[in-house]
Protein 1
Amino acid sequence: MENTNNVSSFKRFFSYLIPYKWYFIIAIIFGMIKFLLPVYVAWMFGKIISTLTDDNILIEQKYDSIILLISIGIGLSIITPVFVYFRTILSNTATQKVINDLRVDLFAHVQGLSHSFFDYHLAGSITSRIINDVSLTQVFLKQVIVQSWMHIGVVIVILSYFFTVNWRLAIFSLLLIPIQIIVMKFVGHKIKKVSIDLQEDMAQLSGLTMESISNISIVRVPSSPST
């Protein structure tokens, strides 16, 4: 039952991402280009060394190949900040749009709740849910939606290259993935529990703080003495 509710919640949440999917897709592609540059640099040095040690290649051909590889590397290094800039702009823009839509819909939902709901929930706690809890989705969008898929794409590209070079070593490198998944699942469960408890505590703290401050303005006027 809990898993069904989680799946339903994720579906509702991801429906907010659909209008801005191209923002995220282009940001992921630009991020992949940025992270693949060091891979190209490593490949370039290996190619240069193999070219220099190959006696079957003429000196002029070695020189031309090395100049071409270095020129491509320098060119990519120059344009990489451009990809980083647009990735940041696109991901931040999409994230803020999603958060804005969430806050608007959540506020409209709260406005339609019955009066009994507000009798059992502090105003500060509700405000914390609308502002603070929704702000936490910004971390989720940047780290999960953008960075995770960006890293997955980079890993797929690198593994594809590994399989073309040496499929045995590529399979051996995949043996570490199950260990990482087990560790991440264990740590992620602990982090999720701590995060939920922290959100509850912050909501209670915000509610008590807001109620305490708002009550300061309530002034009890003593009744006038009878004559």
Protein 2
Amino acid sequence: MKILKRKYTGEADLKRLQDFNAEAIALTNHCGYLHPGDIPHHIYSGHKHYDPVDLLTIWEDGCGVAAWLLADPSHKSFDAQVRPDLRGGDFERDVLQLAEARTIALMQRHNIAGDYIHADAFRGDSARSELLTTLGYEHDGEVPYVLNKTEIDAVDVPALPTGFSFTSATSIADAAALAQVHNAAFGPNWTPKLYQKVMVSPGYAPERELVIQAPDGTCVAFTIIWYDYLNGTGLFEPVGTHQGY
């Protein structure tokens, strides 16, 4: 079956990629695949300074999406997602080789210094681990990422100090306050204009950005929640708290 490669085109493609990952997760118990909510987060928040068209490549065949690649020059890495029935062979190798070449080229174009790039593999994802080893990657010896999962029974809303309250974003009018709390939690990476860009991007919904407000109305903590409707799972990420609190 012929596999064709093309560029990312926007909102309709985002939905295709989210559906692709949800279906892959259903088949693999999540091994090797991003949660669907992480996809818009990686594209539009993690790469706020870039045009997604320059970073994303999609492969398709008669069965739909065969794979997709998001180059990540800022973090010297990439997301490469390959359909379960195409894992571990020449096609996945080709995707990984393009991922490496594209990431390095973008680092050079944007003057990002670095002597190496990173590639991730889930624990238990032998297909990806073996291919990366064959391509010359070495294990960095660091503690692996841990994905925690818990079943939902009953969730108690925690008690907040007097005067503090739970709320959510409502519109791009909140962009300045959200940029401020993101910066206060993780460092000065956001301007109100940049956060407005995220808030109008595909996949973002203001009611899913939850915040805690101090008595004076200052946003002091936040998280964004994401859904995988097919698998009945939720994800909250990132989570940040103002350093002053």
Protein 3
Amino acid sequence: MGVVEELMAIESDLARGRGVAYERVLHADALVVVPGAVLTRDECVRAMDASPGWDEIELGEPHLVESRTTATVVYPFVGRRRSTTYRATLSSTYARDDSGRWRLLLHQQTPQDEPTRHSLPGPTQINLVVADVARAGAFYRDLGWDVVDPVDPHAEIRFEGLKVELDERSSVAYWNSGNPDDAAAATVLSIHLASRDEVDAVWTRMTGLGYESRQRPFDAFFGSRFAVLADPDGHQIGLLSPWSDEHRFDPAGPAPL
């Protein structure tokens, strides 16, 4: 195994590991430079023990720079955790200790993504028009969301930075006189789940409770495991796993029913 293969194997273990993995590899004087912080060895170990870790990782093609006493690998990194995707260029410099083992001296992360600058703020509220707010609330409770006890004809589901409101159709004209008569449009409100298996598990649980499936779980062309449920009023709820390049392909036709 060459130097670059050795170091990338260590990097892969660290990306998947907890504090103990870093404790084994970090040099006593190591520094870890991450967005917003410069961590010592002990601080890094504690931070990794507190981190939830990544659901999926991708380590790109590395570049190796060697000197007489050190070796540095630089490579693109992608980490995914639920709906969060982190892209960065990573650089790690290693030196061998007296026993010949590689020790990490310096690690630095340079994020690749910059915040998108919109001219208007993003959405903070979604209103779903329903026939019966209690019936709709039962669906979303079964799905796993905490529905605030309805005050007819209205109920709320609150998330950090976003609120989903359930409004009975009879009340909508009071605030939207142009609302169409259709129970639901073709919009799909998707939930980003932690894994491909969780998509299947949630779909199986909800259909087992008698709720309608619009799309059974399948490996979608864009790299995710995907399924679609319908609430009692026909609003479509997508179940979406993290995507990966290895699962992407050019679609040959409609999704399997």
